[in-house]
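Exercise 7. Predict the structure of Adenosylhomocysteinase from Candidatus Nitrosocosmicus franklandianus.
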Amino acid sequence: MEYRIKDISLSDKGKKKIEWAESHMPVLLSLKKKYEESKPLKGLVVGGCLHVTKETAVLTKTLAAAGATVAWSGCNPLSTNDDIAASLVKDEGLSVFASRGVTNKEYYDDIYSVLKFNPDITIDDGADLTIEFHKNLDKYGKNIIGGTEETTTGVLRLKALETNSKLGYPIIAVNDAETKHDFDNVYGTGQSALDGIIRATNVLLSGKTVVVAGYGHVGKGIASRARGLGASVIVTEVDPINALKARMDGYTVKPMEEAASSGDIFITSTGCKDVIARKHVEKMKNGVLLANAGHFNVEISIDDIKELSYESKKINENVEQFLLKNNNKINLIGEGRLVNLVAAEGHPSEVMDMSFANQFLSVLYLLKNKGTLENKIYKIDREQDIMIARLKLESMGISIDKLSENQSKYLNEYGEGT
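Solution. The predicted structure, encoded as tokens:
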């Protein structure tokens, strides 16, 4: 076993958190129980690059219980829970290469520590592991069967590889599963992003104007939760359909240049760079809060903010205040990185239960279809989505209706009309 973590003495604290997550992830735990005896992943190396949280720990433990050798790194310099990493190493015997606050070099060194295990299957969040793997397929890719991708940003990066005929192995877009993006992205990020902002600042959202950049699944969830806490919400968009959805959902829709002078709190969730830049910061009110809920720290141009400032200071662990040359103050949360993971604990366990069930089942699917899949991006099978939703409903004690034979016949034939 190899590893690089911050402090293995934190393991007891991490173990308790993992146990808490397990008690709130019944779908994934049912899959663990189902496959821990047959061990379908025995002999396989699963290389992962996901946020090292208590929920991710439950996924890694499930993979290991199914027989896999697990090597893992973090997918964001500030999202690793050091106590979780310690427990996975000490209590589970897994190879983890992650700690909170790594430099850019250390971050990629950790990724390459995973690649040195020559993974059969990769599990990624943001595609950093997959992209680095593609640069070194000749060196580390002798066993590769396929991979999965957890988030929107990662899927977009990998689709660009596919479009340019450079995708080196099949990838399952876990993010595109309905039981992932309609729940994890909407309800998970919607709640946890605001949780991060509140933990970092203790700000009262009621009565504030919150500007949400992007109205995809993530932005939709954030806007809904902000309104629920009493904020007025402005949505900015570049996609006319998403903008129209936001307006029909009752939000004010404006360009960022107009919204910049109105907002008290700005939350980016687009997956694109320079969503908040110099021209926007120059128009902002004194004391605004800036936070990012997209995967990478490129949505808020920190370089522009620094150029407009003459001084900065740390207000607390997660808030840096910039004193602008126009005498206004700008408060940046979490270095512009994922606010829900930097300043809070990420998505609640209950919603990650479905996302990580999709990850585990996708690994099984890749193994089952070894050698038959093309080097392209695949969507989750509808049957898998439905199965996970049913298991989740059952765990919640919820029953639903079933189609009668006559109803099924009606829906699958065309003869019966008025």
